[in-house]
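Handout, section B. The chain below has 118 residues.
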Amino acid sequence: MKKPMQELIQYESDLTNMFDSDVRVAGALLEYIRTNKKDMLEKENEVIMDAYIEGCCDNILCESTDKKRAEEYYNKTLHTVYGQIYLLPYIKLTHSRKLNGDLELIIGWLKWEVVFAI
């Protein structure tokens, strides 16, 4: 099963082959996201919980309790982030364009950062 982000990337690739304008591709992607955002979020939830179950369950008998534990894990872990701060200075290097399309060197501390992108 493909994750929603993988489906979105594939859809973007298909649209790029169909349209000659980045503006039309962006418009079609935005419309797709607006119409399917709830379904995409539900599918992402299922994928995360299935991965948790697969990683924790070692036999068929524990599957029903693992579904409950997976749901608790999802709700507890992914819905309780209040904020974050980097206490130490950091350097981050993005070495692949697959992540966000740019090669980046980021130097940061607390909430400030300097980004060098190619």
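Note. The helical segments are 4-18, 22-56, 63-78. Compare this with the example in section A.
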